[in-house]
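Run folding on both entries below.
>entry_1
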Amino acid sequence: MPDNPARSETHNNMAVETLSFPAIVGQQGDRKFYQLILTNRELTTRFATSPCASPNEKSQRELDSKHAAKIAKYIVDNPQEYALGSLTYAVDQPCRFVPTKLGSNVGILHIPASSSIHSLDGQHRRKGLTDALLENSSIADECSAVMLYEESNPDKRRQMFSDFNSTPKKVSATLTVQFDSRNPYKRAAKTIAAEHHLLEGVVEMTRPSIVSGSDKIWTLGGISDALERVHPAFKKARQMTPEAYGPILDRAHVLFDILHGARIELSEAKCAPAEIPTMRTENILFSSVTLRAIAGALGEIYKNAGGELSDDDIEDITIRLSEVDFSPSNPAWSDCGFLSPGTSTPSSRLQEIKAGTNVLVKLLS
């Protein structure tokens, strides 16, 4: 780390250049590790990672600049509430830890300035934080957490990266919607699921998908995605403001009012939830993917109408939607690729959803 400022300390009658930080020391297996709390300025200037001399020493994936830019934007847009997880590094030389008192695991960590520090997890957060500081210097004195392991063996560092990434479980879209109180689409999805009479009791509020035998029709994640399609004007991050919530919720009511007025089978399902698993095999309307396609078609109709629909327009769309054949045997769905022949579950790939949306635009316009 030759570019980092360091200080000299005397150790065994020799002056040694070190980087020194308050730390907590711990042990995992045969490795020592240290928990550091660094200011964002220290993290992005003093605690620099060393370039790898060869590809075999690299212990991280390639940096994705677009992903880092999203993190930077998230920090800049939420300076009072941003939250970044701990960053993880490995240092290739033994460090000296001086406890504040005998036997304490709290003290000062002295990292040899001649050592190399390798990123194991969090390079995109660090890059995002660095870029965010260029736009908002007020967060420079705020703090980030760093885990630093002592590990000199490149192969073992690479194994650590593999270990870190072999066990994480992806958070489902439905749970993300449940927990998000900032995103206006997710907020509107929770509101419409709670207050619209068509949706009461038939929305899967926790699982990422509808399981076999479920008496739910759509997932909360599917509803949130549908709202992004019926009113896509606010999808850009700069427009994700609290003021977007009202217009999104208004259009959500239009969407589900149309569905309630057009499709009697949805009301029948609410009255006989035990029949929903059977209905799902006979009617692709009982799919969150189809809901997305219907919402996308309504969004296109709004767009073509300049963003506004009259009561007569909405009544006409309701009548047209009531005439659509949503049975899996309807060749319109398989011909466009929205449904594979012989199946009753629409494809969730974006291109197939777009194909189904285009069919519905023609049927509803």
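>entry_2
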Amino acid sequence: MTARFSMKSVQPAAYQAIDAIDNYIDETKIDPLHKELIRIRASQLNGCAYCLNIHNKDARKIGETEQRLYVLSAWREARNWFTDEEQAILALTEEITLIANHGVSDEVYNRAIELFGEEKTAQLYMAIISINIWNRIGVGLKMQPK
């Protein structure tokens, strides 16, 4: 598979705008490990090898275990390995990433609000939306891990 054009080169202003969203996310109250779980799970669902390569490495650098990364795609079956907050984040990540299937259910939305409140839930939404943008660039442009 041959990579296509570089979004950063062809549309630098668009790339910078997406990067600005990530800069905003870096300033939120979202735990850094939770950010990486969002990025990895969305990238698994979207099939973005480029992003999976980056974010699995990043997660390990900040202390994520190999074992949890191994079972992340089956987190529901490995619930005891993930906190209630992480399970809520992963469920929200899946429903936003696969939004065309059935939207975001009241159950998942209400659980996020219960655990995180509106402000942090809004921040989680933005983190999930951001990685989905990057995944669409990575998959659409056939970007490959280095």
